[in-house]
Amino acid sequence: MSGDISGDISERASSMRIASVVEALSVTKRYGSTAALNDVSIRVMPGESHALVGRNGAGKSTLVSILTGLRKPDTGDVRFNGEPAPPLADRDAWRERVACVYQHSTIIRDLSVAENLFINRQPSRGGVIDWRTMRRDARALLDHWKIDVREDARAGDLSVEARQLVEIARALSYGARFIILDEPTAQLDGDEIKRLFRRIEELQREGVTFLFISHHLQEVYEICQAVTVLRDARHIVSAPVSALPREQLIEAMTGERGGLLVADAAAREPLRADTAIALQVDRLSGADYEDVSFAVKRGEVVGLTGATSSGRTSVAEAIAGLRAAKRGTISVDGVSLPPGDVPAALAHGIGCVPKDRHHEGLVLTQSIAENASMTIARLFGKFGIATPAKKNAFGQKMIDALGIVAQGPEHVVSGLSGGNQQKVVMARALATNPNVLVLIDPTAGVDVKSKEALLSVVDRVREEGKAVLVVSGELDDLRTCDRVLVMFRGRIAAEFPAGWQDQDLIASVEGVSLHEE
Q1: What's the CA gap between 467 and 461, in Å, rounded?
Q2: 139 and 114 inside one domain
Q3: CB–CB of 41/24 below 8 Å?
Q4: What whole-number distance in Å separates Cα of residue 439 and Cα of residue 423?
Q5: Which end of the chain is more exposed for a tag (fewer CB within 10 A), N or C?
Q6: Segment 152-194, tens digit of pLDDT
Q7: d(CA 180, CA 187)
Q8: Band of residue 259 on the pLDDT scale cut at 50, 70, 90
Q9: φ and ψ at residue 113, rounded to 5 degrees
């Protein structure tokens, strides 16, 4: 990295001689011959929000497991407020120092908020849980940290945003003032993200320190004061966010110069006016959307965006047959599809990358070959029974085509990084050679290089004359689109041709216009 950044790091270190909240010093962790962390150091100062970024497989998860006392480093030390970390067996001492709010919530949905806050440490009287005291203490805790949820509410009935705040309150109740947030915005829409960021800033002013892990680099600039980059299990740079422009941050993450390399649709030749329509959606209505109509031509990429609550995901899932619309029609090459019928959608040429790869896109205990060939097993043998050799040959073909980093087609999917798992989901969607490809949040939770690889598939499929619907809130995903439809409160509210300005599209997603007379 540049000398200017090195100077900024030195200045930051020399100007902050107070004890860091947490510090990892030359930490190394190996699993056999594989280095998960190699001589990594990080220093997080009191009251800051410090970003930890890097591609999938860079070592972030291993570092978090060491900072939370779930694993012991082979070499190196961890210190809290200048003091050595407690022994791994002393879980109470770790809870007093650090907590992690994971992307997949650890809240028990069938319990109340109060029960979740005091789980395994409920106040008791005469050997029986003192429910009144627990609810009173829960209310006091929520009020102290200004978290507006009812203590007797069922946790499963809360929004994702509220559940995250309850997890933060639970961590703070142990005495921890250092909170690790793992992809905290992955399931939130624009307004929820703004509220979460305001709450983080308020907690920072009250002495809480955050380690913020996100693949959304814009969020790093919005909420964080410092950033540490890991790459290939090594520490690359730590610097003030203000000293590391986006292009340099991506360079540090990837080891390559330049920003995200995706095909911008604004540079394409327009489609011919008489190009055939592949996908026609006519007056589609469902639980959270109404009267949605649009068409996608062969060789066209159309984006569908909006807030999480806009209905965009439900529309996409209806097209793929994952859920049934109440009214309206979906046609592929002029043939109407039955509602809520995945086999029919597949048979008529629709391939889909679903929103949740873990629950809808993959069987984590099976191999790459088995996952990739799942939708075409019937083509490999009688009664849908395929020989391992045929499955593995197809799996290897997809590994080569999509650049999946794995030991081979028999590699179990659970052992892949998030980016490579998403490539396997893409492989399964492409296996049927679909005429229409529906991609729902295709790059969510993956690193920069995996994003490039996945979005390059969009351009390749488009060149083959297939229709692509990209359903996403990520601006980089939408740059691949010839036009972008914006949904607001269940309806299509605006359309933007390629070449749109970020601020215009974001304003439309949030229901405002920057150009009103």
Answers
A1: 8
A2: yes
A3: yes
A4: 12
A5: C
A6: 999 989 888 888 888 888 888 888 899 999 888 877 767 778 8
A7: 17
A8: low
A9: -60, -45
Nearest-10 Cα torsion for 367, 368, 372, 376: -40
Same domain, 299 and 333: yes
Q: Within this chain, do residues 75 and 212 fall inside the same structural domain, yes or no? A: yes
Listed residue (194, 303, 253) closest to 53, CA to CA: 253
Tell me the CA distances in angstroms from 450 to 351, 388, 429, 471, 478, one per residue in order: 20, 28, 17, 18, 16
> Quick check: is 452 in a domain?
no
Q: What would the DSSP string read from start to end of 279-332?
A: EEEEEEEETTEEEEEEEEETT-EEEEEE-GGGSHHHHHHHHTTSS--SEEEEEE
The pLDDT value given to residue 3: 43
Can you give the pTM of this predicted structure?
Answer: 0.62
Residue 357 per-residue DSSP state: I
Query: What is the CA 469 to chain-centroid distance, rounded?
Result: 19
Query: Per the domain annotation, does 268 fall within a domain?
Result: yes
Phi–psi pair at 178, nearest 5 degrees: -125, 115
At residue 500, what are phi and psi to the nearest 5 degrees? -60, 155
Asked if 123 and 133 count as a contact pair (C-beta separation under 8 A), the reply is yes
Top-confidence residue, 28 or 372: 28
Radius of gyration of the chain (CA): 25
| Final residue of a structural domain among 123, 147, 174 | 174
Going by DSSP bridges, is the β-strand pair 234-240/301-306 parallel, antiparallel, or unpaired?
Answer: unpaired
User: How many CA atoms lie less than 13 Å away from 9 in the CB half-sphere?
Assistant: 16
Biggest CA pair distance of the chain: 80
- For residue 171, the surrounding DSSP H or E stretch is helix 160-173
Measure the CA–CA gap between 401 and 386, rounded to whole angstroms.
21
Distance between CA atoms of residues 173 and 169, nearest Å: 6
Q: Which helix (H) or strand (E) holds 37?
A: strand 34-44
Instruction: Supply 316's token pair.
Output: 């996409």
Task: Provide the residue range defining the domain that includes 163.
Answer: 107-174
Give the total number of structural domains in the chain: 4
For the chain, the first-to-last Cα distance in angstroms comes to: 46
Residue 303 shares a structural domain with residue 377: no
Whether 413 contacts 364, CB under 8 Å: yes
Q: What are the residues whose beta carbons fall under 8 Å from the beta carbon of 155, sequence distance 6 or more? A: 107, 108, 109, 110, 111, 112, 113, 115, 116, 163, 166
480 close to 265: Cβ distance less than 8 angstroms? yes
Q: Does residue 319 fall inside a structural domain?
A: yes
Q: Assess whether 469 and 336 both reside in one domain.
A: yes
Per the structure block, which two tokens stand in for 216?
């959304």
Residue 276 falls within a domain, yes or no? yes
Residues 421 and 438: their CA atoms lie apart, in Å, by 17
Return d(Cα 408, Cα 368) in angstroms, integer. Answer: 8
